[in-house]
Design a protein that fits this description.
Length: 168
């Protein structure tokens, strides 16, 4: 069975949820999917394909996603990779494609990623922390669209199914 790893870098849990939705969808499409914290993955060689996502903070891609991309670049060179970011605390991600931040763009180039997608984020209205609480006062809420995430995951599943067997 085709095995897909969905790895994520998340600080407050919302990117981890998105990774979980992607994993569920891939399983619904008949693939074997494992969802894991990017910082905890030691070996990607058991997987046929990888989806890597990171939360956005101050224009930066979560460090666990960045490190994952660096650490596993060689092993991933023969495997199809998809990237996603989650962050915008408004509906902008649903209205137009938001390009990757520079760190995610670099990871995309280094890994030869098939695609990068930006999804809306979530910040609880009662978020703690000096900066987070101020942002939450203005734009706190849940801007993730599970249907959009699942639709993308179905596309990934289709591509995995068609590329499987043609990769090195
Ligand atoms: C301090 C702070 C800075 C943020 N900076 C950005 C940003 O630069 N770009 C963006 O799109 N979202 C930004 N966000 C929103 C987060 O990316 C969003 O809350 C995301 O869903 C967090 O993911 P997590 O729950 O997995 O950590 C920021 C949020 C906080 C609290």
């Amino acid at each position: 069975m085709t095995r897909v790893l969905v790895a994520y870098g998340s600080r407050r849990g919302s990117t981890a949820d998105i990774a979980g939705w992607i994993g569920d969808t891939l399983r619904d499409q008949g693939l074997e999917a494992e969802v894991a914290d990017a910082g905890a993955v030691r070996d990607v060689t058991p997987y046929d394909a990888v989806v890597l996502g990171g939360a956005l903070y101050a224009g930066r891609w979560h460090k666990d996603a960045r490190r994952f991309a660096r650490r596993h670049a060689v092993a991933l060179s023969g495997r199809p990779v998809w990237l996603f970011s989650s962050g915008p605390l408004d509906r902008s991600a649903d209205e137009a494609e938001i390009p990757p931040v520079p760190q995610a763009a670099r990871a995309s180039a280094a890994l030869g990623a098939r695609e990068h997608r930006t999804f809306g984020g979530r910040l609880a209205r009662d978020a703690e922390g000096f900066l987070a609480s101020r942002i939450a006062e203005r734009t706190g809420g849940d801007y993730r669209d599970p249907d959009r995430v699942r639709a993308w995951a179905r596309q990934v599943a289709e591509h995995v199914a068609t590329t499987q067997g043609t990769e090195a």
